[in-house]
Amino acid sequence: MDGTMMDFPLTLTPILERAGKLFPDVEIVTRLPDKSLHRYSYGEFHRRTHLLAAGLEDAGLKRGERVATIMWNSYAHLEAYFAVPCAGGVLHTLNFRLHENDIAYIANHAEDRFLIVDDVLLPIYERIKDKVKFERVFVVSFTGAANPDGLENYEEFLAGGRTDYAFPELDENEACAMCYTSGTTGRPKGVAYSHRAMVLHTFCAGLADTIGLTQRDVLMPVVPMFHANAWGLAHAAVMMGSKLILPGPHLDAESLLGLCDSEQVTLAAGVPTIWMGILQALEADSARWTLHPELRTVVGGSAVPEGMMRGFDRHGITTIHAWGMTETTPLGSVSRLKRGMENLSEDERYQARIKQGLPVPFVEVRVINDEGEAPWDGESMGELQVRGPWIAASYFNSEQGQDKWSEDGWFGTGDVVTIDKEGYIKITDRTKDLIKSGGEWISSVDLENALMGHDSVREAAVIAVPHEKWTERPLAVVVPMEGTEPSAEELGKYLGRDFAKWWLPDAYEFVDDIPRTSTGKFLKTALREKFAAHMWRD
Ligand code: AMP
Predict the structure, then answer these.
(1) Do residues 405 and 394 make contact, with C-beta atoms less than 8 angstroms apart?
(2) Helix, strand, or coil here: 157?
(3) Cα of 332 to ligand 1 centre, how many Å?
(4) Where are the beta strands (DSSP E) in 285-363?
(5) Does ligand 1 lie within 6 Å of residue 55's CB atom?
(6) Rounded to whole angstroms, what are the CA distances from 330 to 188, 201, 402, 454, 493?
(7) Secondary structure element (H or E) that encloses residue 364, with its range
(8) CA angle (193 as vertex; 89, 22 as ends), nearest 5
Protein backbone atom coordinates (compact mmCIF):
# COMPACT_ATOMS: atom_id res chain seq x y z
CA MET A 1 0.00 0.00 0.00
CA ASP A 2 1.32 3.47 -0.84
CA GLY A 3 1.27 6.30 1.67
CA THR A 4 -1.39 8.96 1.30
CA MET A 5 1.02 11.88 1.23
CA MET A 6 1.44 14.57 -1.42
CA ASP A 7 4.20 14.16 -3.96
CA PHE A 8 5.96 17.45 -3.20
CA PRO A 9 9.34 17.94 -4.90
CA LEU A 10 12.34 18.70 -2.71
CA THR A 11 13.72 21.82 -4.42
CA LEU A 12 15.46 24.95 -3.18
CA THR A 13 12.59 27.25 -4.17
CA PRO A 14 10.40 26.74 -1.06
CA ILE A 15 13.46 27.40 1.12
CA LEU A 16 14.02 30.77 -0.55
CA GLU A 17 10.33 31.74 -0.55
CA ARG A 18 9.90 30.86 3.10
CA ALA A 19 12.93 32.94 4.11
CA GLY A 20 11.46 35.92 2.27
CA LYS A 21 8.14 35.51 4.10
CA LEU A 22 9.25 34.55 7.60
CA PHE A 23 12.61 36.28 8.09
CA PRO A 24 12.43 39.53 6.07
CA ASP A 25 14.22 41.49 8.80
CA VAL A 26 17.06 39.07 9.54
CA GLU A 27 20.35 40.58 8.44
CA ILE A 28 22.92 39.42 5.92
CA VAL A 29 26.19 41.26 6.52
CA THR A 30 29.07 41.25 4.04
CA ARG A 31 32.57 42.58 4.56
CA LEU A 32 33.39 44.34 1.31
CA PRO A 33 36.84 44.53 -0.28
CA ASP A 34 37.37 48.05 1.20
CA LYS A 35 36.59 46.50 4.62
CA SER A 36 33.34 48.43 5.08
CA LEU A 37 30.23 46.40 5.97
CA HIS A 38 27.31 45.96 3.59
CA ARG A 39 24.06 45.16 5.37
CA TYR A 40 20.71 44.13 4.09
CA SER A 41 18.01 41.67 5.11
CA TYR A 42 16.48 38.44 3.84
CA GLY A 43 13.57 40.54 2.52
CA GLU A 44 15.92 42.44 0.21
CA PHE A 45 17.84 39.25 -0.62
CA HIS A 46 14.58 37.59 -1.62
CA ARG A 47 13.54 40.53 -3.82
CA ARG A 48 16.90 40.75 -5.59
CA THR A 49 17.11 36.99 -6.07
CA HIS A 50 13.84 37.17 -8.03
CA LEU A 51 15.24 40.01 -10.14
CA LEU A 52 18.39 38.06 -10.92
CA ALA A 53 16.41 34.94 -11.83
CA ALA A 54 14.12 36.99 -14.08
CA GLY A 55 17.11 38.65 -15.75
CA LEU A 56 18.81 35.31 -16.39
CA GLU A 57 15.69 33.81 -17.86
CA ASP A 58 15.20 36.84 -20.12
CA ALA A 59 18.85 36.54 -21.13
CA GLY A 60 17.98 33.10 -22.45
CA LEU A 61 19.06 30.80 -19.62
CA LYS A 62 17.38 27.46 -20.20
CA ARG A 63 16.76 24.52 -17.89
CA GLY A 64 19.95 22.81 -16.84
CA GLU A 65 22.29 25.46 -18.27
CA ARG A 66 25.26 26.49 -16.20
CA VAL A 67 26.00 29.90 -14.72
CA ALA A 68 29.51 30.21 -13.29
CA THR A 69 30.72 32.43 -10.47
CA ILE A 70 34.16 33.77 -9.61
CA MET A 71 33.26 35.31 -6.29
CA TRP A 72 34.18 35.65 -2.65
CA ASN A 73 31.59 35.03 0.06
CA SER A 74 29.14 37.92 -0.30
CA TYR A 75 25.46 38.82 -0.52
CA ALA A 76 25.72 38.78 -4.33
CA HIS A 77 27.13 35.25 -4.27
CA LEU A 78 24.22 34.22 -2.05
CA GLU A 79 21.81 35.72 -4.59
CA ALA A 80 23.40 33.57 -7.30
CA TYR A 81 23.27 30.54 -4.97
CA PHE A 82 19.46 30.69 -5.10
CA ALA A 83 18.52 32.64 -8.24
CA VAL A 84 20.33 30.32 -10.65
CA PRO A 85 18.94 26.98 -9.39
CA CYS A 86 15.46 28.30 -8.64
CA ALA A 87 15.30 29.64 -12.20
CA GLY A 88 16.11 26.11 -13.40
CA GLY A 89 19.82 26.71 -14.08
CA VAL A 90 22.87 25.14 -12.47
CA LEU A 91 25.19 27.25 -10.34
CA HIS A 92 28.80 26.43 -11.05
CA THR A 93 31.09 27.94 -8.42
CA LEU A 94 34.58 28.17 -9.90
CA ASN A 95 37.49 27.67 -7.52
CA PHE A 96 39.57 30.67 -8.50
CA ARG A 97 42.54 29.55 -6.44
CA LEU A 98 43.30 26.93 -9.05
CA HIS A 99 45.76 27.50 -11.85
CA GLU A 100 44.23 29.50 -14.71
CA ASN A 101 44.51 26.55 -17.09
CA ASP A 102 42.48 24.43 -14.70
CA ILE A 103 39.84 27.14 -14.24
CA ALA A 104 39.48 27.42 -18.00
CA TYR A 105 39.39 23.65 -18.41
CA ILE A 106 36.67 23.36 -15.76
CA ALA A 107 34.52 26.20 -17.19
CA ASN A 108 34.75 24.67 -20.67
CA HIS A 109 34.12 21.15 -19.47
CA ALA A 110 30.99 22.29 -17.62
CA GLU A 111 29.96 24.36 -20.67
CA ASP A 112 29.30 27.42 -18.53
CA ARG A 113 27.18 29.93 -20.45
CA PHE A 114 27.21 33.02 -18.23
CA LEU A 115 29.61 34.27 -15.56
CA ILE A 116 29.11 36.47 -12.50
CA VAL A 117 32.40 37.85 -11.21
CA ASP A 118 33.50 40.19 -8.40
CA ASP A 119 35.30 43.25 -9.76
CA VAL A 120 38.24 42.58 -7.44
CA LEU A 121 38.60 39.16 -9.11
CA LEU A 122 38.59 40.52 -12.66
CA PRO A 123 42.35 39.91 -13.01
CA ILE A 124 41.55 36.18 -12.82
CA TYR A 125 38.89 36.56 -15.49
CA GLU A 126 41.37 38.48 -17.66
CA ARG A 127 43.78 35.55 -17.50
CA ILE A 128 41.20 32.98 -18.61
CA LYS A 129 38.99 35.01 -20.94
CA ASP A 130 40.71 33.96 -24.17
CA LYS A 131 40.40 30.30 -23.24
CA VAL A 132 36.70 30.26 -22.29
CA LYS A 133 33.37 30.94 -24.00
CA PHE A 134 31.10 32.85 -21.60
CA GLU A 135 28.33 34.53 -23.59
CA ARG A 136 27.75 37.26 -21.03
CA VAL A 137 29.74 38.36 -18.01
CA PHE A 138 28.16 40.31 -15.13
CA VAL A 139 30.50 42.22 -12.85
CA VAL A 140 29.61 42.91 -9.21
CA SER A 141 31.11 46.33 -8.67
CA PHE A 142 32.46 46.78 -5.15
CA THR A 143 35.11 49.37 -5.98
CA GLY A 144 33.09 51.53 -8.38
CA ALA A 145 35.75 51.17 -11.10
CA ALA A 146 34.51 51.25 -14.70
CA ASN A 147 33.79 47.89 -16.33
CA PRO A 148 36.17 46.63 -18.98
CA ASP A 149 34.61 46.74 -22.46
CA GLY A 150 32.06 44.07 -23.22
CA LEU A 151 31.29 43.21 -19.60
CA GLU A 152 28.01 44.17 -17.94
CA ASN A 153 27.27 45.69 -14.56
CA TYR A 154 25.49 43.29 -12.17
CA GLU A 155 23.38 46.02 -10.52
CA GLU A 156 22.19 47.34 -13.89
CA PHE A 157 21.35 43.81 -14.95
CA LEU A 158 19.27 43.34 -11.78
CA ALA A 159 17.56 46.68 -12.21
CA GLY A 160 16.26 45.47 -15.59
CA GLY A 161 14.74 42.32 -14.07
CA ARG A 162 10.94 41.79 -14.15
CA THR A 163 9.22 42.28 -10.78
CA ASP A 164 6.34 39.89 -11.61
CA TYR A 165 8.64 36.92 -12.07
CA ALA A 166 7.58 33.51 -10.71
CA PHE A 167 9.95 30.58 -10.43
CA PRO A 168 9.28 27.56 -12.64
CA GLU A 169 8.21 24.23 -11.21
CA LEU A 170 11.21 21.96 -11.03
CA ASP A 171 11.78 18.27 -10.68
CA GLU A 172 13.74 17.42 -7.54
CA ASN A 173 16.25 15.36 -9.51
CA GLU A 174 17.32 18.27 -11.71
CA ALA A 175 20.80 19.59 -10.97
CA CYS A 176 21.03 22.78 -8.91
CA ALA A 177 24.78 23.23 -8.53
CA MET A 178 28.17 21.95 -9.62
CA CYS A 179 31.64 21.79 -8.10
CA TYR A 180 34.83 20.27 -9.42
CA THR A 181 37.09 18.28 -7.14
CA SER A 182 40.42 19.77 -6.20
CA GLY A 183 42.37 16.54 -6.66
CA THR A 184 46.15 16.73 -6.59
CA THR A 185 46.45 14.41 -9.59
CA GLY A 186 44.58 14.02 -12.88
CA ARG A 187 42.06 16.40 -14.43
CA PRO A 188 39.49 17.99 -12.09
CA LYS A 189 36.19 16.14 -12.12
CA GLY A 190 32.72 17.61 -11.82
CA VAL A 191 30.00 16.71 -9.36
CA ALA A 192 26.43 17.81 -10.17
CA TYR A 193 24.24 18.16 -7.06
CA SER A 194 20.51 17.61 -7.44
CA HIS A 195 17.91 19.81 -5.73
CA ARG A 196 16.79 16.77 -3.78
CA ALA A 197 20.32 16.03 -2.52
CA MET A 198 20.86 19.65 -1.53
CA VAL A 199 17.55 19.92 0.32
CA LEU A 200 18.11 16.72 2.29
CA HIS A 201 21.69 17.79 3.03
CA THR A 202 20.39 21.13 4.30
CA PHE A 203 18.00 19.41 6.71
CA CYS A 204 20.88 17.28 7.90
CA ALA A 205 23.12 20.29 8.59
CA GLY A 206 20.45 21.67 10.90
CA LEU A 207 20.30 18.63 13.17
CA ALA A 208 21.35 19.31 16.74
CA ASP A 209 23.78 16.40 16.64
CA THR A 210 25.46 17.52 13.42
CA ILE A 211 26.07 21.24 12.95
CA GLY A 212 22.96 22.25 14.84
CA LEU A 213 22.21 25.54 13.07
CA THR A 214 19.16 27.43 14.33
CA GLN A 215 17.29 30.63 13.56
CA ARG A 216 18.91 32.23 16.62
CA ASP A 217 22.41 31.62 15.31
CA VAL A 218 24.69 34.17 13.76
CA LEU A 219 26.57 32.12 11.18
CA MET A 220 29.88 33.05 9.58
CA PRO A 221 30.93 30.62 6.84
CA VAL A 222 34.63 31.30 6.33
CA VAL A 223 34.83 28.27 4.06
CA PRO A 224 34.66 29.71 0.55
CA MET A 225 31.32 29.49 -1.21
CA PHE A 226 33.19 27.95 -4.17
CA HIS A 227 34.31 25.00 -2.08
CA ALA A 228 31.81 22.14 -1.78
CA ASN A 229 28.73 24.40 -1.48
CA ALA A 230 30.31 26.21 1.48
CA TRP A 231 29.69 22.92 3.28
CA GLY A 232 25.94 23.48 2.81
CA LEU A 233 25.97 26.32 5.33
CA ALA A 234 24.65 29.08 3.06
CA HIS A 235 21.66 26.88 2.17
CA ALA A 236 21.19 25.96 5.82
CA ALA A 237 21.26 29.61 6.89
CA VAL A 238 18.48 30.47 4.42
CA MET A 239 16.43 27.45 5.49
CA MET A 240 16.78 28.25 9.19
CA GLY A 241 16.65 32.04 8.78
CA SER A 242 19.95 32.54 10.64
CA LYS A 243 21.73 35.87 10.53
CA LEU A 244 24.58 35.50 8.03
CA ILE A 245 28.00 37.09 8.14
CA LEU A 246 29.99 36.82 4.90
CA PRO A 247 33.64 37.78 5.26
CA GLY A 248 34.38 38.70 1.63
CA PRO A 249 38.07 38.52 0.77
CA HIS A 250 39.32 39.24 4.29
CA LEU A 251 40.24 35.91 5.83
CA ASP A 252 43.00 37.00 8.21
CA ALA A 253 42.60 36.35 11.92
CA GLU A 254 42.23 40.07 12.79
CA SER A 255 39.37 40.61 10.34
CA LEU A 256 37.55 37.41 11.29
CA LEU A 257 37.86 38.01 15.02
CA GLY A 258 36.70 41.57 14.43
CA LEU A 259 33.52 40.26 12.76
CA CYS A 260 32.98 37.64 15.48
CA ASP A 261 33.11 40.49 18.00
CA SER A 262 31.08 43.18 16.20
CA GLU A 263 28.37 40.82 14.91
CA GLN A 264 28.40 38.45 17.92
CA VAL A 265 28.89 35.37 15.74
CA THR A 266 27.70 32.13 17.37
CA LEU A 267 28.83 29.64 14.72
CA ALA A 268 31.76 29.91 12.31
CA ALA A 269 33.11 27.35 9.89
CA GLY A 270 36.41 26.84 8.09
CA VAL A 271 39.52 24.72 7.60
CA PRO A 272 42.08 24.18 10.39
CA THR A 273 44.59 26.59 8.79
CA ILE A 274 42.17 29.46 9.41
CA TRP A 275 41.54 28.41 12.99
CA MET A 276 45.24 28.00 13.74
CA GLY A 277 45.73 31.67 12.91
CA ILE A 278 42.76 32.68 15.03
CA LEU A 279 43.96 30.61 17.96
CA GLN A 280 47.39 32.23 17.79
CA ALA A 281 45.79 35.69 17.82
CA LEU A 282 43.64 34.75 20.83
CA GLU A 283 46.62 33.28 22.67
CA ALA A 284 48.55 36.50 22.08
CA ASP A 285 45.84 38.77 23.50
CA SER A 286 42.32 37.41 23.92
CA ALA A 287 41.15 40.49 25.85
CA ARG A 288 41.02 42.47 22.61
CA TRP A 289 37.78 40.83 21.51
CA THR A 290 34.47 40.27 23.26
CA LEU A 291 33.21 37.06 21.73
CA HIS A 292 29.73 35.58 22.11
CA PRO A 293 29.79 33.12 25.05
CA GLU A 294 28.26 30.41 22.86
CA LEU A 295 30.62 30.84 19.89
CA ARG A 296 31.45 27.44 18.41
CA THR A 297 33.26 26.45 15.27
CA VAL A 298 32.80 23.78 12.63
CA VAL A 299 36.22 22.67 11.48
CA GLY A 300 36.72 20.30 8.56
CA GLY A 301 38.44 19.75 5.25
CA SER A 302 41.50 18.47 7.10
CA ALA A 303 41.96 16.81 10.45
CA VAL A 304 41.67 18.98 13.53
CA PRO A 305 44.87 18.77 15.59
CA GLU A 306 44.19 17.90 19.22
CA GLY A 307 46.31 20.85 20.40
CA MET A 308 44.07 23.21 18.48
CA MET A 309 40.89 21.73 19.93
CA ARG A 310 42.32 21.98 23.45
CA GLY A 311 43.47 25.54 22.74
CA PHE A 312 40.00 26.68 21.68
CA ASP A 313 38.45 24.93 24.67
CA ARG A 314 40.70 27.05 26.91
CA HIS A 315 39.04 30.11 25.35
CA GLY A 316 35.55 28.63 25.82
CA ILE A 317 35.11 27.94 22.09
CA THR A 318 33.91 24.43 21.20
CA THR A 319 35.27 22.84 18.04
CA ILE A 320 32.88 20.62 16.10
CA HIS A 321 34.94 18.36 13.87
CA ALA A 322 33.31 17.40 10.56
CA TRP A 323 34.42 15.28 7.62
CA GLY A 324 33.25 15.47 4.05
CA MET A 325 34.18 15.64 0.39
CA THR A 326 33.14 17.49 -2.73
CA GLU A 327 31.53 14.20 -3.80
CA THR A 328 29.48 14.05 -0.59
CA THR A 329 27.90 17.57 -0.86
CA PRO A 330 29.98 17.51 1.59
CA LEU A 331 28.62 16.53 5.04
CA GLY A 332 29.56 12.91 5.81
CA SER A 333 30.39 12.63 9.50
CA VAL A 334 30.50 14.81 12.59
CA SER A 335 32.30 14.11 15.83
CA ARG A 336 30.15 14.68 18.88
CA LEU A 337 30.27 12.67 22.09
CA LYS A 338 27.49 10.18 22.70
CA ARG A 339 25.58 10.14 25.97
CA GLY A 340 27.77 8.63 28.68
CA MET A 341 31.04 9.63 27.03
CA GLU A 342 31.22 12.74 29.18
CA ASN A 343 32.29 10.33 31.93
CA LEU A 344 35.44 9.36 30.03
CA SER A 345 38.76 10.87 31.12
CA GLU A 346 39.66 14.20 29.57
CA ASP A 347 42.26 12.54 27.32
CA GLU A 348 39.77 9.91 26.15
CA ARG A 349 37.21 12.59 25.36
CA TYR A 350 39.72 14.41 23.16
CA GLN A 351 40.67 11.15 21.47
CA ALA A 352 37.00 10.71 20.55
CA ARG A 353 36.41 14.32 19.54
CA ILE A 354 39.37 14.52 17.17
CA LYS A 355 38.08 11.53 15.25
CA GLN A 356 36.10 12.35 12.12
CA GLY A 357 33.04 11.16 14.01
CA LEU A 358 29.77 9.39 13.48
CA PRO A 359 28.30 9.12 9.99
CA VAL A 360 25.38 11.52 9.72
CA PRO A 361 21.89 10.10 9.12
CA PHE A 362 21.51 8.64 5.61
CA VAL A 363 25.24 8.43 4.97
CA GLU A 364 26.09 4.74 5.19
CA VAL A 365 29.71 3.75 5.67
CA ARG A 366 31.88 0.66 5.41
CA VAL A 367 35.61 -0.07 5.55
CA ILE A 368 37.10 -2.17 2.77
CA ASN A 369 40.59 -3.69 2.70
CA ASP A 370 42.31 -6.66 1.04
CA GLU A 371 40.38 -9.08 3.24
CA GLY A 372 36.99 -7.58 2.37
CA GLU A 373 34.81 -5.59 4.78
CA ALA A 374 36.73 -4.74 7.95
CA PRO A 375 35.19 -5.02 11.41
CA TRP A 376 34.36 -1.90 13.43
CA ASP A 377 37.03 -2.58 16.04
CA GLY A 378 38.93 0.71 16.00
CA GLU A 379 42.01 -1.06 14.62
CA SER A 380 41.33 -2.62 11.24
CA MET A 381 42.25 -0.11 8.57
CA GLY A 382 40.82 0.12 5.09
CA GLU A 383 39.29 2.49 2.59
CA LEU A 384 36.17 4.30 3.71
CA GLN A 385 33.30 3.73 1.30
CA VAL A 386 30.04 5.65 1.53
CA ARG A 387 26.60 5.78 -0.02
CA GLY A 388 23.52 7.90 0.52
CA PRO A 389 21.12 10.41 -1.03
CA TRP A 390 23.71 13.21 -1.22
CA ILE A 391 26.66 11.09 -2.34
CA ALA A 392 27.69 11.40 -6.01
CA ALA A 393 26.85 8.37 -8.16
CA SER A 394 29.19 9.43 -10.98
CA TYR A 395 31.27 12.32 -12.26
CA PHE A 396 29.82 14.75 -14.77
CA ASN A 397 30.61 13.76 -18.38
CA SER A 398 33.76 11.89 -17.49
CA GLU A 399 35.17 8.48 -18.19
CA GLN A 400 37.97 9.15 -15.75
CA GLY A 401 37.56 8.39 -12.08
CA GLN A 402 34.61 6.04 -12.47
CA ASP A 403 36.72 3.38 -10.75
CA LYS A 404 36.01 5.17 -7.47
CA TRP A 405 32.63 3.44 -7.36
CA SER A 406 32.50 -0.22 -6.33
CA GLU A 407 30.56 -2.74 -8.37
CA ASP A 408 27.75 -2.62 -5.83
CA GLY A 409 27.52 1.17 -6.04
CA TRP A 410 29.45 2.50 -3.02
CA PHE A 411 31.76 5.50 -3.43
CA GLY A 412 35.41 4.92 -2.45
CA THR A 413 36.62 8.02 -0.62
CA GLY A 414 40.36 7.35 -0.86
CA ASP A 415 40.51 7.95 2.89
CA VAL A 416 41.99 5.18 4.96
CA VAL A 417 40.11 4.81 8.21
CA THR A 418 39.26 2.73 11.21
CA ILE A 419 35.76 2.68 12.70
CA ASP A 420 35.44 1.85 16.38
CA LYS A 421 32.68 -0.20 17.95
CA GLU A 422 30.73 2.96 18.77
CA GLY A 423 30.76 3.91 15.06
CA TYR A 424 33.35 6.73 15.24
CA ILE A 425 35.33 7.02 12.01
CA LYS A 426 38.99 7.88 12.33
CA ILE A 427 41.00 8.84 9.26
CA THR A 428 44.47 7.37 9.49
CA ASP A 429 45.53 8.65 6.08
CA ARG A 430 44.57 9.12 2.48
CA THR A 431 45.30 6.12 0.29
CA LYS A 432 48.27 7.73 -1.39
CA ASP A 433 49.71 9.11 1.84
CA LEU A 434 49.78 5.98 3.94
CA ILE A 435 53.27 4.86 4.84
CA LYS A 436 53.92 1.15 4.54
CA SER A 437 57.03 0.19 6.43
CA GLY A 438 58.12 -3.41 6.49
CA GLY A 439 54.60 -4.46 5.53
CA GLU A 440 52.99 -2.51 8.39
CA TRP A 441 50.97 0.67 8.21
CA ILE A 442 52.13 3.93 9.77
CA SER A 443 49.69 6.82 9.91
CA SER A 444 51.30 10.06 8.80
CA VAL A 445 48.22 11.99 9.98
CA ASP A 446 48.66 10.76 13.56
CA LEU A 447 52.33 11.78 13.54
CA GLU A 448 51.51 15.19 12.06
CA ASN A 449 48.81 15.90 14.58
CA ALA A 450 51.09 14.90 17.42
CA LEU A 451 53.97 17.01 16.08
CA MET A 452 51.68 20.01 15.70
CA GLY A 453 50.91 19.69 19.41
CA HIS A 454 54.59 20.44 20.22
CA ASP A 455 55.19 24.00 21.39
CA SER A 456 57.94 24.62 18.83
CA VAL A 457 56.10 23.24 15.81
CA ARG A 458 53.89 25.48 13.71
CA GLU A 459 53.18 22.98 10.93
CA ALA A 460 54.29 19.47 10.14
CA ALA A 461 53.73 17.11 7.24
CA VAL A 462 54.89 13.52 7.34
CA ILE A 463 55.54 11.79 4.05
CA ALA A 464 56.60 8.38 2.89
CA VAL A 465 60.10 8.36 1.43
CA PRO A 466 61.48 5.28 -0.33
CA HIS A 467 63.79 3.11 1.79
CA GLU A 468 65.91 0.21 0.64
CA LYS A 469 65.20 -2.05 3.55
CA TRP A 470 61.74 -1.07 4.74
CA THR A 471 60.30 -0.04 1.33
CA GLU A 472 59.14 3.25 2.87
CA ARG A 473 60.00 5.21 5.97
CA PRO A 474 58.42 8.40 7.38
CA LEU A 475 60.13 11.74 6.98
CA ALA A 476 58.79 14.77 8.86
CA VAL A 477 58.84 18.18 7.22
CA VAL A 478 58.54 20.75 9.99
CA VAL A 479 57.92 24.50 10.09
CA PRO A 480 59.16 25.71 13.50
CA MET A 481 57.24 28.29 15.52
CA GLU A 482 58.76 31.72 15.15
CA GLY A 483 61.76 32.19 17.45
CA THR A 484 62.20 28.49 18.20
CA GLU A 485 64.70 25.91 16.95
CA PRO A 486 63.40 22.43 17.66
CA SER A 487 65.90 19.63 17.08
CA ALA A 488 65.26 16.25 15.50
CA GLU A 489 66.31 14.60 18.73
CA GLU A 490 63.87 16.65 20.80
CA LEU A 491 60.94 15.93 18.46
CA GLY A 492 61.80 12.22 18.29
CA LYS A 493 61.80 12.03 22.08
CA TYR A 494 58.48 13.88 22.21
CA LEU A 495 56.82 11.51 19.75
CA GLY A 496 58.44 8.51 21.43
CA ARG A 497 56.13 9.04 24.41
CA ASP A 498 53.05 8.14 22.34
CA PHE A 499 54.22 6.00 19.44
CA ALA A 500 56.02 2.71 18.90
CA LYS A 501 59.67 3.16 18.00
CA TRP A 502 59.19 1.90 14.44
CA TRP A 503 56.56 4.60 13.84
CA LEU A 504 58.95 7.47 14.56
CA PRO A 505 60.16 9.55 11.58
CA ASP A 506 63.70 8.61 10.65
CA ALA A 507 64.51 12.15 9.62
CA TYR A 508 63.32 15.72 10.07
CA GLU A 509 63.62 18.49 7.53
CA PHE A 510 63.11 22.02 8.82
CA VAL A 511 61.59 24.39 6.28
CA ASP A 512 60.03 27.87 6.15
CA ASP A 513 56.73 26.73 4.78
CA ILE A 514 54.92 23.70 3.40
CA PRO A 515 53.39 23.96 -0.08
CA ARG A 516 49.60 23.74 -0.15
CA THR A 517 46.87 22.88 -2.62
CA SER A 518 44.47 25.62 -3.66
CA THR A 519 42.14 24.61 -0.84
CA GLY A 520 44.80 24.82 1.83
CA LYS A 521 45.81 21.21 2.25
CA PHE A 522 49.44 20.10 2.36
CA LEU A 523 50.61 19.37 -1.16
CA LYS A 524 52.24 16.09 -0.33
CA THR A 525 53.01 15.23 -3.93
CA ALA A 526 55.34 18.25 -4.03
CA LEU A 527 56.98 17.22 -0.76
CA ARG A 528 57.41 13.66 -1.92
CA GLU A 529 59.05 14.91 -5.12
CA LYS A 530 61.30 17.27 -3.21
CA PHE A 531 62.51 14.61 -0.79
CA ALA A 532 62.38 11.61 -3.14
CA ALA A 533 66.16 11.39 -3.19
CA HIS A 534 66.51 11.66 0.57
CA MET A 535 69.51 9.64 1.79
CA TRP A 536 68.75 7.72 4.93
CA ARG A 537 71.66 7.56 7.35
CA ASP A 538 71.21 4.03 8.67
P1 AMP B 1 37.63 17.89 -0.83
O2 AMP B 1 36.79 17.11 -1.76
O3 AMP B 1 38.63 18.77 -1.49
O4 AMP B 1 36.81 18.57 0.20
O5 AMP B 1 38.54 16.87 -0.04
C6 AMP B 1 37.97 15.81 0.66
C7 AMP B 1 39.04 15.14 1.42
O8 AMP B 1 39.57 16.00 2.41
C9 AMP B 1 38.59 13.91 2.17
O10 AMP B 1 38.54 12.77 1.37
C11 AMP B 1 39.66 13.82 3.24
O12 AMP B 1 40.84 13.20 2.73
C13 AMP B 1 39.96 15.26 3.54
N14 AMP B 1 39.17 15.69 4.70
C15 AMP B 1 38.00 16.34 4.72
N16 AMP B 1 37.59 16.55 5.97
C17 AMP B 1 38.52 16.00 6.78
C18 AMP B 1 38.67 15.87 8.19
N19 AMP B 1 37.78 16.36 9.04
N20 AMP B 1 39.76 15.22 8.65
C21 AMP B 1 40.69 14.73 7.80
N22 AMP B 1 40.60 14.82 6.47
C23 AMP B 1 39.53 15.45 5.96
Answers:
(1) yes
(2) helix
(3) 10
(4) 296-299, 318-324, 331-335, 358-359
(5) no
(6) 17, 8, 19, 31, 38
(7) strand 364-369
(8) 70
Give the three-class secondary structure for 445.
helix
Residue 255 lies in a domain: no
Active site residues: 181, 327, 436, 441
C-alpha–C-alpha distance, residues 141 and 82, integer Å: 20
**Boundary of a domain, candidates 204, 224, 245:** 204
Going across the sheet that includes 175-180, the strands are: 152-153, 136-140, 112-118, 66-70, 90-93, 175-180, 190-194
Burial class of residue 492 (count of CB atoms within 10 Å of its CB; 0-12, 13-18, 19+): middle
Coil, strand, or helix at residue 496?
A: helix
Ligand 1 proximity of 231 Cβ (cutoff 6 Å)? no
Instruction: Specify the amino acid at residue 366.
Output: R
Supply the range of the domain harboring residue 130: 13-27+41-204
Q: How far is the CA of 301 from the centre of ligand 1 (A)?
A: 4
pLDDT along the chain (538 residues), means of 10: 97 98 98 98 98 97 98 98 98 88 94 98 96 98 90 96 93 97 68 98 97 98 95 98 98 97 97 88 96 96 88 97 96 97 96 97 96 97 96 93 92 94 89 64 82 94 82 90 94 90 92 87 84 70
Q: Could you tell me the CATH number of the domain that includes residue 465?
A: 3.30.300.30
Count how many domains the chain has: 2
Q: What is the pTM of this model?
A: 0.85
CATH code (residue 90): 3.40.50.12780
How many CA atoms does the CB half-sphere of 246 hold within 13 Å? 26
User: Does residue 458 lie within any of the structural domains?
Assistant: yes
Q: Which residues pair with 175 in a beta bridge?
A: 194
Last residue of a domain, one of 204, 237, 258: 204
DSSP string, 64-120: T-EEEEE--SSHHHHHHHHHHHHTT-EEEE--TTS-HHHHHHHHHHTTEEEEEEEGG
